[in-house]
Structures are given as C-alpha cells and as structure tokens.
Amino acid sequence: MRKILLLFLITLISCSKKENSFYKGIINSSEGSKQYLVFDIDSDVFKGTVVAKSFRLLQYYQSKNKNITKEEYGNQVYNKLIKKESFDITDKKFIDEYFFKQYKPVKEVDSVAKLGKLRFIEYFFNRDIIKKEFISKTQYSEAAIIKQLFDWEIACHNDSETGYLVITEYERNPNWTIPN
Questions:
Q1: Most CB contacts within 10 A, which of 70, 74, 82, 138?
Q2: What pairs with residue 129 in β-bridges?
C-alpha cells in the first residue's frame, strides 16, 4: 500500500512540474510575439474570453509597469495560463488600444472542431493560410478559429503582408503534420 501511495505522489509531483512548451514558445520567443494567446479577463471593465497577440499583451504590461522585464512578463502570463486563471485587466486602454478580439462561440467553427484537428484545418485553411471565405464570415469567426487552434496547442498569427491568419508551424516547416 505504501508503494502505491508513494508511486502516486511521485507521479502527481512530476506531472505538476511539467512545463507547457506551447505557452513558453509563444510567450518567450521573439517569433512567438506575433502569435495569438487566448485568455479570460475578469474585471469591472470587461468579462470574457479574448484573443490577443502576445506582443500586445506585453505592451499592455509595460504600459502599466515600465520596469517589467520580458522574463517577468513571461512568468506572470505563463503562470496564469497554466493555472487557467483570469487576467484582471481593469484598464479600459487595453480594450480600446491593444487590439484584442473578443471570443464568442460560432456554431460552424464548433461543429467542424468536433470532426478533429485534421478536418478542421482542411475545412478552414488552404494548407497554412485561412480560406478567404472565412475571414469575415461572422464578426467572431476568426477569434473562434484562433481559440480552437490555441486549445489544441496549434500556434497561429496574421501574415505581415496579407493579414490572413496563418498556422505558424506550416510557415516554419512545410512538412509539418498535424499532431493527434
């Protein structure tokens, strides 16, 4: 019985220490700064799920505290994401000036997501770039697509020339395959 309890505790401790390389990659890499984060805000100013570029959230943190380092920012955001904690962003400036997108469920996005990652990407993307017909199908389509990819730990960003949503891994590696 003691061995089972000890094994359980060791497993629990080792699992709790496991890092999330997906979050770390978006928050800490220079390339990740253009990628999207999805997080909840719970404040008097706004309540809900938002989609924002990592560098925009960093800009917001730096506007609140000029002395914050990128490492401190990364640790704060990483810990909130890992613990699934809401961000207490009470400054209306973030909402007005830092270009976040409000997430609202979109039935079509949710129903395609139930078919799995491969079908989802085939449906909404021409390999790595979002199909034109989904760019503005509804006001919330792009945010819903980004959120679903983020939930599956698939990073995406907007192409700097076209503005289209791009799956980051395809851009880095044309031979990338969708993880199960």
A1: 74
A2: 126, 166
Both tokens of 1, joined, read: 């019985």
> Tens digit of pLDDT for each residue in 137-168?
666 788 999 999 999 999 999 888 888 888 98
Single out the residue of 128, 117, 111 nearest to residue 179, CA to CA.
Answer: 117
Structure tokens at 43: 């404040």
Note the pTM of the prediction, 2 decimals: 0.83
Q: Which contiguous run of DSSP H or E holds residue 121?
A: helix 117-124
**One-letter amino acid of 87:** F
Q: Residue 109 corresponds to which tokens in the numbers above?
A: 């996005």
Phi-psi region for residue 101, left (φ > 0), alpha (ψ -120 to 50) or beta? beta
